Backbone:
């Protein structure tokens, strides 16, 4: 049932069997521009029957797709990479409108997704098994890597291009079907990604897209044809998804919240530290799972705080198409309220707010979800400001005397997504790299998101599962290994039954 409400992009269809599929849902949600609250689209919460239809379409397509040779599957990815590059600007503009991200950042996000598609182009060599001749006399052993069947992806609002592209290209290149349930807050970019994938020659049904919230996620996870679930989002929901999927004995990987610390040694290059802290702290309005939200100033590095405050005051949010804007709005009014509340709570708990972004306004956009850069010093580990993921342009500064203290602080935090050290000392960098209990480490690099030939390796409270996103680990996540032991008899057949477990 269409929503009958006028919006810029209209009532969005689901994407099933290679085409737009209007939803019969009675539940529709508004997609609002975070920049001015204008109505961009209405998005349906797919019915249970529609979710099942998407999964069954992906299953039917997968039965044929798994027989397509790996180099041919890779050629679809090559064409997809070219199409994504040809549509780079269009995708970035769409993404910027629904997320509010500034255009340069939106272009960067699309590019990081394209890089994963490039990795999927090399799927043939990544799916090679192992061989050992003569595991016993006249017996050979080898392994085959085969697709699972239909896999599912549930993605968050903050990267509507990059995170779906972490998942479906590689899963499908491995020979699987895929059902994607993107965030209902940013449905436009994922739909366009699916259309372009079809245009690149992907068979009908191999990638299906449904929208919705918790009930749709439950319908996906519990469907018997779904073999594996990839989730990216908040820690609360990720834990639920992981428990539910593994309770049903399915494979799951859940990438969740973060609290990323950057350690600043007094021997670091000050100018680099200041500009990197601003970029990594407030870029994308702090709505990145790898954003730096805590700066740990070691020893005399604390003397740089006044200049850091100046650098924070010098950047301003603004609309996605403005060259002046350093970053865009928060995703929703609710997200803005939450961040404002955590700032207030920080002040109440005794942290010193050096720069307060709550009153910021943007000329011509009175209704945007704006939050100015916000900087605290004197933050301690028991404060909510420190304990919670803020997901806003807020940087908490803490001061310690030694690198070992900084490492102990980071290792005591429940999250372990990303971290960085800025230093001029190789010995300090090595100690940090070796001792820190975080899965992605930057040395004079503030946001160390690995390129796709590695994997995205968050640890501890930032990740539930074993095998991570993209890279070799994702190929293993989306496949099953079959091991074959093979003998061909010649005239020299051993006589009598072999009653032992050994091969003879
Ligand atoms: P979210 O958890 O609210 O939503 C994520 C997805 O889950 C969406 O598709 C949403 O529709 C669905 N969902 C929401 N409630 C659900 C429920 N009760 N049951 C089942 N599904 C449900 O997250 P968000 O606000 O969209 O994204 C921000 C969060 O994502 C932050 O915590 C951020 O750190 C995290 N994130 C993590 C990574 C990472 O790699 N670790 C990357 C990006 C974002």
Residues:
């Amino acid at each position: 049932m269409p929503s009958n409400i006028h919006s810029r992009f209209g009532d969005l269809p689901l994407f099933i069997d290679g085409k737009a599929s209007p939803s019969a849902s009675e539940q529709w949600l508004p997609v609002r521009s975070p920049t001015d609250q204008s109505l961009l689209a209405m998005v349906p919460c797919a019915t249970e029957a529609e979710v099942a239809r998407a999964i069954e379409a992906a299953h039917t397509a997968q039965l044929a797709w798994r027989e397509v040779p790996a180099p041919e599957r890779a050629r679809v990815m090559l064409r997809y990479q070219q199409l994504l590059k040809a549509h780079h600007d269009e995708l970035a503009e769409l993404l910027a409108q629904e997320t509010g991200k500034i255009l340069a950042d939106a272009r960067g996000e699309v590019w990081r997704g394209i890089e994963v598609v490039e990795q999927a182009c090399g799927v043939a060599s990544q799916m090679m098994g192992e061989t050992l001749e003569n595991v016993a006399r006249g017996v050979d052993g080898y392994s085959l890597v085969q697709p699972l069947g239909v896999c599912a992806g549930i993605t968050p609002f903050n990267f509507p291009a990059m995170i779906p592209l972490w998942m479906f290209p590689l899963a499908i290149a491995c020979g699987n079907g895929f059902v994607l349930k993107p965030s209902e807050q940013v449905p436009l970019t994922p739909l366009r990604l699916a259309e372009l994938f079809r245009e690149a020659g992907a068979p009908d049904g191999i990638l299906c897209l449904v929208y919705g919230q918790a009930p749709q996620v439950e319908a996906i996870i519990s469907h018997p044809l779904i073999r594996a679930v990839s989730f990216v989002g908040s820690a609360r929901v990720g834990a639920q998804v992981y428990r539910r999927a593994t309770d049903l004995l399915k494979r799951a990987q859940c990438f969740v919240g973060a609290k990323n610390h950057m350690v600043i040694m007094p021997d670091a290059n000050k100018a680099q530290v200041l500009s990197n802290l601003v970029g990594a702290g407030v870029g994308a309005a702090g709505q990145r799972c790898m954003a730096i939200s805590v700066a740990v100033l070691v020893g005399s590095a604390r003397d740089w705080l006044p200049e850091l405050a100046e650098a924070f005051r010098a950047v301003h949010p603004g609309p996605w198409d403005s060259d002046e804007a350093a970053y865009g709005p928060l995703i929703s009014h609710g997200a803005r309220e939450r961040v404002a509340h955590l700032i207030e709570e920080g002040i109440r708990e005794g942290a010193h707010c050096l720069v307060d972004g709550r009153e910021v306004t943007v000329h011509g956009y009175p209704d945007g979800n704006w939050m100015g850069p916000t900087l605290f010093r004197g933050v301690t580990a028991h404060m909510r400001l420190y304990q919670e993921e803020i997901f806003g342009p807020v940087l908490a500064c803490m001061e310690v005397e030694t690198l070992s203290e900084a490492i102990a602080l980071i290792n005591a935090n429940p999250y372990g997504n990303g971290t960085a050290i800025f230093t001029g000392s190789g010995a300090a960098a090595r100690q940090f790299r070796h001792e820190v209990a975080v899965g992605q480490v930057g040395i004079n690099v503030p946001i160390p998101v690995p390129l796709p030939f590695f994997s995205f390796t968050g640890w501890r409270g930032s990740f539930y599962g074993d095998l991570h996103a993209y890279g070799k680990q994702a190929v293993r996540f989306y496949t099953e290994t079959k091991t074959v032991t093979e003998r061909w008899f010649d005239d020299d057949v051993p006589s009598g039954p072999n009653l032992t477990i050994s091969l003879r």
Notes: The two ends are 67 Å apart (CA to CA).
